[in-house]
Specification:
Length: about 325
């Protein structure tokens, strides 16, 4: 089918899919005539794209029309819906319409149902950081594309080093492929060549929950060296601590399905592990952590110096977890 909808926050994999589709259908000699991009959030641009995709390609190869950052997956007025209903079934087989978005399409939308009927919707979301088995499988598949033979310990080391960052993974595999040549790589090669400082915000959150201030500050430095935006880092921490707070609040509940729904945890099987993580942490500690995160975000938005503000916030979070969980175990002094 000549209609494609790519969505998800894993921009590297999504960009690779767009690149592959472009190479597959567009003749590079005629690309300036047969490849066009339109702003997907602008109604007039969407209408122009739909008109353009009905135009036969010029010269060799097929035509590709790309709607970038489209909002059709979330909202679509009656006029645009009518245009889609008229255009999608009539697109010539040598013309292709590509829509991309970071947001998940709303399956209840008539426009999305229409796109499902006439096209291919594909997700490009990052693997959850805690799904180590899936991350390792992604590494195996990517290594095959680079014709790399990685032993199990090397795959585990790579998973620890790059996490769910697919762009970083492919950068490291490209470097390893140049180094390896035709010989198999060893765990020692991975340790030497891959700088294992790819700390994720979720790893930092777990360290803060344990009250390990020194390690948390070190991981924060790693994240800042990787140009992690401070507000995005705080957003991840806030989401994780809010999840932990919900799980702690629902500790009396025995139905993991219900806990997962209320805590907005996608996989109910993950609830068991979340409960273990917060078992030794007092409820007031998690409540205090959300207050600290909110105050830190407020200071940053007021223009406070990011590094010093984040360091102070991480120290406060770590101390809140360690002090309050200690009080909880020694008789509830902080409760």
């Amino acid at each position: 089918m000549p209609v494609y909808f790519y969505w998800g926050e894993d921009q590297f994999r999504l960009e690779q899919a767009v690149k592959n589709l472009r190479q597959q259908v567009v003749d590079p000699l005629w690309e300036s005539f047969n490849f066009e991009k339109f702003a997907g959030e602008d109604a007039e641009a969407v209408q122009a794209a739909l008109a353009q995709v009905m135009t036969p390609p010029f010269g060799g190869g097929d035509r590709l029309v790309w709607l970038v950052n489209t909002t059709l997956g979330q909202r679509c007025n009656a006029e645009l819906l009518a245009d889609l209903e008229l255009t999608l079934p009539q697109i010539p087989p040598n013309c292709h319409l590509l829509l991309t978005s970071t947001q998940k399409p709303d399956s209840r939308s008539k426009a999305v149902k229409l796109l499902q009927q006439h096209g291919n919707i594909q997700e490009f979301s990052p693997i959850a950081a805690w799904k180590t088995a899936e991350i390792e499988q992604q590494i195996r598949e990517a290594a095959q594309r680079y014709q790399l033979h990685l032993p199990p310990e090397a795959i585990q080391l790579l998973a620890e080093a790059v996490g769910n960052d697919s762009r970083q993974l492919h950068n490291e595999l490209e470097k390893l492929a140049l180094f390896a040549g035709d010989r198999p790589l060893t765990a020692e090669d991975i340790t030497t060549l891959v700088h294992a400082t790819q700390q994720s915000s979720l790893t930092l959150a777990s360290t803060l929950l344990r009250g390990d201030t020194a390690t948390a500050l070190s991981q924060l430095e790693d994240l800042l060296l990787q140009n992690e935006p401070p507000l995005r880092l705080l957003a991840t921490l806030t989401k994780q601590f809010r999840t932990w707070l919900w799980v702690k609040l629902l500790s009396h509940e025995r139905d993991n399905q219900r806990i997962a729904k209320l805590a907005e945890v996608g996989n109910p099987k993950r609830v068991y592990f979340l409960q273990k993580e917060v078992n030794a942490v007092a409820l007031p500690s998690l409540q205090a952590c959300l207050q600290i995160l909110l105050a830190t975000e407020y200071q940053l938005k007021l223009g406070a110096e990011p590094v010093a503000t984040l360091r102070q916030g991480m120290i406060q979070l770590s101390l809140a977890c360690s002090r309050r969980s200690w009080g909880d175990r020694s008789g509830g002094a902080d409760n």
